[in-house]
Design a protein that fits this description.
With 174 residues, this protein is α/β, with parallel strands linked by helices. The chain contains 4 helices and 7 strands; from the N terminus they run ααβββαβαβββ. The longest helix is centred in the N-terminal third of the chain and has 17 residues. The N and C termini lie far apart (100 Å).
Length: 174
């Protein structure tokens, strides 16, 4: 009589893998990754793309077409179509752009063109990102300490909250 081998009769239970220590290690690793990561805030400055139009502007309104050319010598302001030189704002004695003079000049211009919101910035040469952002801040923001400018909307006078907040880059390859 033949007997079955003893291996077939004895069944060993399947050993289960203990995953708890592995999961603990993974969660601790994720925790340390999150704690060591640098979370940075990314800020976006709104800027429009230049629009090419084949239409003619309305006859009763002359467009301001304000343009600021930023170069190593200073900031030159142009207005009108075709562009005509309007004002030059040179750098301060310390070699920085005179953002305050630019801001005050744009307030005067805004008082005469209250509904105008667009300005074209053209950086020329080697202008740093920080300098461009400071120019954009001087061009966009009206401070609380600035003289109030009001426009008529319907029957009410509404305070203008920004100078020229629609910024278009005319040439960023300079």
């Amino acid at each position: 009589m033949l007997r079955a081998p003893s291996r077939r009769k004895r069944r060993e239970p399947v050993k289960k893998l203990n995953l708890i220590p592995i999961l603990d290690a993974v969660f601790i690793f994720i925790f340390f990754l999150l704690m060591s990561a640098n979370f940075i805030k990314i800020f976006e400055i709104q800027s429009d793309v230049p629009i090419v139009s084949t239409g003619t502007p309305p006859k009763n309104q002359k467009p301001l077409a304000l343009k600021a050319i930023i170069s190593q010598k200073g900031i030159s302001l142009y207005r009108g179509v075709p562009s005509r030189f309007f004002r030059s704002i040179s750098k301060t004695s310390s070699g920085e752009f005179d953002y305050e003079s630019l801001h005050l000049e744009l307030i005067k211009l805004k008082k005469r063109n209250k509904k105008e919101r667009e300005i074209i910035l053209e950086p020329k040469g080697n202008i740093s990102y920080e300098e461009i952002v400071k120019v954009m801040d001087a061009v966009r923001n009206l401070r609380r300490t600035d003289e109030a400018i009001y426009i008529k909307e319907g029957q009410m006078d509404v305070r203008v909250k920004a100078l020229f907040d629609k910024i278009v880059f005319g040439n960023i390859q300079g």
